[in-house]
């Protein structure tokens, strides 16, 4: 997924987001936070948890280019 300020604004204006769109919004907000804090993504580690309507986690070790994102839907981790 490529970060797009336009895409996130469009999604946030939608009243009833699908499950897929909720996941997109959460991921894009996480990326936006990293960008706004001017963090070095590759050299940073993350063990973040989001406890909103759609609970999600994001985990990444220093030096990794990609991390692991999970969402809990109806008690099932995906």
Q: In words, what does this structure look like?
A:
The chain is of the alpha+beta class. The protein has one domain. Helices cover 35% and strands 23% of the residues. It contains 2 helices and 4 strands; from the N terminus they run ααββββ. The chain has a 4-stranded antiparallel sheet with strand order 1-2-3-4, covered by helices on one side. β3 (68-73) and β4 form a beta hairpin. α1 (5-13) packs across α2. The two termini are 17 Å apart. The model has no long low-confidence stretch (mean pLDDT 88).
- What letter string, H or E per element, gives the SSE order? HHEEEE
Supply Rg.
Answer: 13 Å
Strand order of the largest sheet: 1-2-3-4
Instruction: Give the termini distance in whole angstroms.
Output: 17 Å
Structural class: alpha+beta
Shape: flat
Report the average pLDDT across residues.
Answer: 88
Oligomer: single chain
**Count of domain modules:** 1
Q: How many β strands by DSSP?
A: 4
What are the low-pLDDT stretches, counting only 5+ consecutive residues below 50?
Answer: none
Instruction: Give the fraction of residues assigned to helices.
Output: 25-40%
Content of β-strand: 15-25%
The helix tally amounts to: 2
Largest sheet: 4 strands, antiparallel
